[in-house]
């Protein structure tokens, strides 16, 4: 069996582009996995901003101060490398899973899919089953129709606003954000972003739905590049299923010259993307397994063996075995593991302090009334920890030099502070016109928090 879409398959449209898709609610093994996983991910998404760590919000992406706080780890623009590594880990992990299990990310964990199915669940509870919704949309508008539509859209709007507010809690402290929401004290910028994200959620999950997956999402376009003959995909067994056709439950399909497919069309009605998996692999398929649950239910009712539609590779459908150790899959996995190791190695050698030394460009040096040479500097110190610390400054590498600086400098967590200092030395004790020296910045509370910065000392 080949996964390519044949030219004759295009006569029967593999994707419903005409009108809305009315999804039939389906129960089954894969639906339970998706629903439980969806609830877990949604509750995690809502709960994370409320988690406290060391008396502060554990995860806070403060764009205004360009400070990202993640469970005691404070990331600043200087820590861009770890964010780049994190995105690379996510990308290669996605490639790995796609080569192994196809578009399961889209079917089970993608926010668009989760919210789309949640909106669909609300719609079904208010407007009824698939057939009832179709009948409702085709009937004339009555008081009952208006009531159902207003209730549905009101529920969608509430979910959208709560979703947007939960998302903004990653960027604004959650307690103050929700308190301001309850007291109607949101600032203009906060209200703008909340309602913008709410509008996007309402539009994407309520109206665009599968169009986001099939048209707007670039992943659906290039994911086929990561497939091979060993990739597990939702597959229809055409040799067993054809010829398809309706029949009575107790009828012998062999006598009717029919396959196991009873042509009930349930696999199409439950599909969030509105495709017919029996037409072969289509890029719109999100590998969610709903059609498997629907088909297995039908097979049970007719007393046939399950698995007419199943997760299988092209090799399996041709009678072979899937190779779990193929080069592409192992390569994606190895690169993902290597990037994870690199990210943790970078984090281990990362110091919770950042400093830089700037010289006074207007005066490289000056001679004071005692005839000593002075060099002014400005030290910029960033406290990348989660607690306020007192920092001391010392110098090395310039014998006989003295440092004029504050005895200690208090810097709040995630704050950058500029500290002017002056290095003084006797010019007769220094042979070179330009000498090297080091500034050592150390936290009084923890001597392991220290950093050394090189600079130069000039004399006449």
TrEMBL record:
Residue ranges of the TM segments: 36-53, 80-101, 154-172, 184-202, 329-348
Q: Where is the 4Fe-4S ferredoxin-type domain?
A: 252-280
User: What PROSITE patterns does its record include?
Assistant: 4FE4S_FER_1 (PS00198), 4FE4S_FER_2 (PS51379)
Q: What start and end residues bound the annotated signal peptide?
A: none
**Do you know which InterPro entries this protein is assigned to?**
4Fe4S_Fe-S-bd, 4Fe4S_Fe_S_CS, Cyt_c_oxidase_cbb3_FixG, Electron_Trans/Redox, FixG_C, Ig-like_fold
Q: What Gene3D superfamilies does this protein map onto?
A: 3.30.70.3270, Immunoglobulins
Note one Pfam family from the annotation.
Fer4_5
Q: Which UniProt keywords apply?
A: 4Fe-4S, Electron transport, Iron, Iron-sulfur, Membrane, Metal-binding, Transmembrane, Transmembrane helix, Transport
Under which name does UniProt file this protein?
A: 4Fe-4S ferredoxin-type domain-containing protein
